[in-house]
Specification:
188 residues; mainly alpha; 0% strand
Amino acid sequence: MRLRPRTLLTCALVVVAACGGGGDASSESTSADGAAPQGAPGSAGAVADFTAEDLAAYERGLAREIELVKAAQAASFTASTPEARGAAMQAQFETATMPEGAKVSGLGERYEGIREVVHTTLRTLDMQGKIDGPVSIDTARASAETKARLAKDPMAELPAGAAAALRARLDVIAAQWAEYTRLTAVGG
């Protein structure tokens, strides 16, 4: 059986993503069991407060990241050389898209922290089945720490104002996050 170059590239990306070598959603400051490491921007000890205006800015930034990922994916499909395909694939990584999202959002350096907190919260809600998204977990294989995290309300970990702002926009933000997560999971 002969594999097409695009199939080989996809397989290689799966390996890279599994090893943490990409900037895709699976490498967003989580351990293998899906838990945020202690002290990470998405962990309870490092949560910064954000407002409804901050979330609107985050939405603009993530929309820009989605545009960039889609453009990079289109470029990878039409690239005529391995180098061009590789460059297009790397252009999808969050290390490439996040700075542009931060610029569009107007949040500057705060964008990354807000993004991490929102993504961690949404990932947990998705694993709990409280929102419709692409993340799932086999709780039988999850660590005790992850099981404990999944037993809690991730909104309770947020400052009250931030939780209220996120709840007010949860449907819109969760749909946008799910689109981004699906696009960046092993190159879409």
